[in-house]
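Tokens as discussed.
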């Protein structure tokens, strides 16, 4: 259910990773938050580990913009009712990238990483409690239910198996 949250990067990709992360960290610090910066590091590392790595070619700023936008698509960054929020044109401007190029990189990343809106693997921790997809489980009888309605002990087992993010204690 969850993506591997690792900062491990192959030695031959370290320099490119560092350059991309320097940009994502700077933009996230100025406009977003530390959660976005942290997840941008994880996503960039995951891209660096791909064989062949897509980030080996192309401009650093385009990849950086694509990474943050891809995460933003999962986490509704352009929805002003969320915090933080940032419209795509402002994001492209912050990275000084062409909107078409940035959008194409974001699409490429989302396709490579099988990312989608409300993807539990890439939902920021602060948004996980509101991500209904992350909590849906199917019973042996085929019924789909919200795992948060189950007894804590069952939730703990599901969380240990990686089926839900964590067990929720109602008390």
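Sequence:
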């Amino acid at each position: 259910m969850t993506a591997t949250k690792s900062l491990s990067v192959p030695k031959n990709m370290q320099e490119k990773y560092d350059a991309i992360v320097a940009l994502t960290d700077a933009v996230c610090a100025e406009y977003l938050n530390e959660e976005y910066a942290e997840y941008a590091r994880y996503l960039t590392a995951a891209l660096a580990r791909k064989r062949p790595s897509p980030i080996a070619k192309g401009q650093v700023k385009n990849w950086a913009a694509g990474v943050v936008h891809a995460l933003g698509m999962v986490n509704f960054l352009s929805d002003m009712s969320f915090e933080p929020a940032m419209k795509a044109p402002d994001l492209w401007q912050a990275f000084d990238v062409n909107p078409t190029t940035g959008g194409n990189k974001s699409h490429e990343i989302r396709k490579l990483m099988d990312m989608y809106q409300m993807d539990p693997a890439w939902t920021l921790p602060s948004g996980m409690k509101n991500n209904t997809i992350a909590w849906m489980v199917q019973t042996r009888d085929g019924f789909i239910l919200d795992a948060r309605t189950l007894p804590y002990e069952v939730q703990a087992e599901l969380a240990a198996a990686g089926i839900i993010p964590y067990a929720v204690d109602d008390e």
